[in-house]
């Protein structure tokens, strides 16, 4: 086992009204070669948890063992075992991606660093075109890919990636997920912090859904989905304001995200839902619709919105 998190609790504030339980008795384990997804909305407590795993902050209660030793006792050791891609961009100034990634590789692996790995990584992510561009001239996505490469060039036993695909184009996102998957072949474990539930579903072995400091569910994506597995989901592309559309009565756990509207339903309600969707198209209220079995996103929405859909 790589990581054993036991009842970790972190409270911010003075204990009065401003008391904020950012992590509330969190318990989980990560095994060698496993990809563990940490899913949660803004403010759910993900970064607070990661900071404690890295020994940057101390739990108020509970303990964290990393490769058999307490992080609380040896915080600096934790930072040598883990490599991290932080949520914010890593400023590399005038360094090029090639220089920044090579420097990180030498710092982490010393004489064991193989410079050929930088080129192989850039090839895998199709980012050779920026290899020699100064950091300050890189696009947001290229910067994000560079900080990803810096985290994985000489990975520790545990790699922590915080929203690695933000600003990255869809094609390179796929390459990036493949690189993450390849990392685990030699036993490296990964914690993937993300809001992007659907992308994560394809990559993670296990996932925890976090809300207001607590784990609402943890398990494999299929275990998590089982809570809503007998439902179908309909996804609509809106051509109108959300307020102009009347969601059908069969809808469960409806959720809007920009011009996307999602809802789940009992399979028996699929035929009338299709009739309803066709009618909305005829009236110009939606552009198109799609139907699919429930996804982990549905489970996530149902759990975090507190709606019972099972
Ligand atoms: N240093 C701090 N002092 C006080 N409150 C804090 C501190 N750090 C985090 N918090 C609070 O703890 C809660 C959890 O924050 P955290 O940053 O861990 O969430 P998150 O899930 O990482 O969010 P995001 O997805 O937006 O990064 C929030 O309510 C936040 O305001």
UniProtKB/TrEMBL annotation:
It comes from the Bacteria. Residues 3-237 form the ABC transporter domain. The keyword Cytoplasm does not apply. PROSITE patterns: ABC_TRANSPORTER_2. InterPro entries: AAA+_ATPase (IPR003593), ABC_transporter-like_ATP-bd (IPR003439), ABC_transporter_ATP-binding (IPR050763), P-loop_NTPase (IPR027417). Keywords: ATP-binding, Nucleotide-binding, Transport. Gene3D superfamilies: P-loop containing nucleotide triphosphate hydrolases (3.40.50.300). The keyword Amino-acid biosynthesis does not apply. GO terms for molecular function: ATP binding; ATP hydrolysis activity. Belongs to the ABC transporter superfamily. PANTHER family: ABC TRANSPORTER ATP-BINDING PROTEIN, ABC TRANSPORTER ATP-BINDING PROTEIN NATA. This is ABC transporter ATP-binding protein. It comes from Lentibacillus salicampi.
